[in-house]
Amino acid sequence: MPSKEKNEQAKWTVIREWDDWAKLYPDDVKKSPPGLYFPLYFADRNTEFLDFQSRAVDKWHTLHGCLFRERRVKD
Predict the structure, then answer these.
(1) What's the pLDDT tens digit per position in 29-43?
(2) DSSP-derived 3-state class of residue 70
């Protein structure tokens, strides 16, 4: 699969998982930073997905950037 398609698929995986998590844990969504526990939830459900190269300090920054661009989180 070409990289662009793979990135798009990955983005929507993150968004879908965030939306599912936010419904299950609405109080955690409001904590600072937004979604403090989301990376743990995401990692438990998508272990193979987190096996990617990232220029960010940690992979949460990559996930957070995706959520920020799609207006799921504000900061």
Answers:
(1) 887 776 778 888 888
(2) coil
